[in-house]
Amino acid sequence: MPEMPTKLAEIVDEFATAPRDVVLELLLEYSDVIPPLPAGVDRDELEQVPECQTAFFLRAEVNPDRTVTTIFDCPPEAPTTRAFAGILAEGLAGASAEQVLAVPDDLYQRMGLAEVISPLRVRGGTAILARMKRQVREQAG
């Protein structure tokens, strides 16, 4: 059984062990990780995550070498939601489809975020992960 990528495991550990007052700072740092939509990609080509309080869109693509490429679109005025995507973007960079599918569904709870941000926001982050994994599962076959 594959494990989640080392980089994502390190991020989870960093959050889980950080003092509560530092966790929000870490989240803000990850909100800056999301690159703008690639040229030629339109928001209409991405799947919306309605569970998010903010307009959030994503697409996960399984490449021929089985690595996964993710595209996220989220407005700058939604730093927490952007941070969820930033954590996934950085933690899953270069990951295989199997590694993405091995990411635990309670990722954000493991990071200790449920103690720092609202349950509604954690649910949005969990929905982002679930939709991304579903897209990967559909393509990986």
From TrEMBL:
Coiled coil: none annotated. InterPro entries: Fe-S_metab-assoc_dom. Pfam families: SufE (PF02657). Residues 15-135 form the Fe-S metabolism associated domain. Belongs to the SufE family. This is SufE family protein. The lineage of its organism: Bacteria, Bacillati, Actinomycetota, Actinomycetes, Micromonosporales.
